[in-house]
Amino acid sequence: RSQFVGLVCLTACLMLATTAMAQGQEGQGRRGGGRGGAGGFMMSTGFLVGVEQVQKELKVTDEQKEKLTALREEGGGQRRGQGGGGGEGGNRRGRGEAPSEEQMAEFRKRSEEQNKKVEAILTADQNKRLKEIVLQTRGAGALRDEQVAKSLGLTEDQVAALKTIGEESDKRMGEIRQSGGDDREARQKKMEELRADTEAESLAVLSDEQKTKFTEMKGAKFELDRRAMFGGGGGNRRRGGNNN
What we know:
By secondary structure, the chain is an all-alpha fold. The chain has helices at 5-23, 45-48, 52-58, 62-81, 87-94, 101-121, 124-138, 146-152, 156-177, 184-203, 208-218, 226-229.
């Protein structure tokens, strides 16, 4: 699993930069970002393929893991060569500032390229399942994705309504995270309640036909153990598949 840490970190950095631009308020790891929905971390194909629990679900082979490791090393080298680990971009993140438009364009380009390379390593069935898992992990936030909206045939009014719901949810999530105090469990409970409320409110915007299609797009249910991924379930990232 340690072989995938570099790939995971690279993709996470790209996603976090996108979040900072979308929100203008958080430059940290977990996000209430414009696409995650109610504070859900927006997980791309590149990120999720590095998670052990997802690898098991996809039945990733040893040969595929080797190719993904090579891709991680390639991506890490490019990032270092472009000053991705420090410099002005790193200083801006350290100060909690949003990246510039130029940086955002570069981040998006690199993220898309990385994901395409990951997809080329996986089989058609693995890619299909991985995309279904991405939709599930993003929850209601996936409805704000341009491609998803197009697939569901969302109207301009629906897109606008979902944008408003998401932005309000992001704002409330940021307030919860910045509320302070030591009661982490209480904050977590509030965030989970907010995610559920946002999910229900977002789905209410859809027609019955769109709801059915969205459910079909997500495929068989997959419970991702986020706490294990981000170290909240016991101090180390371990055995994501055993915790539902």
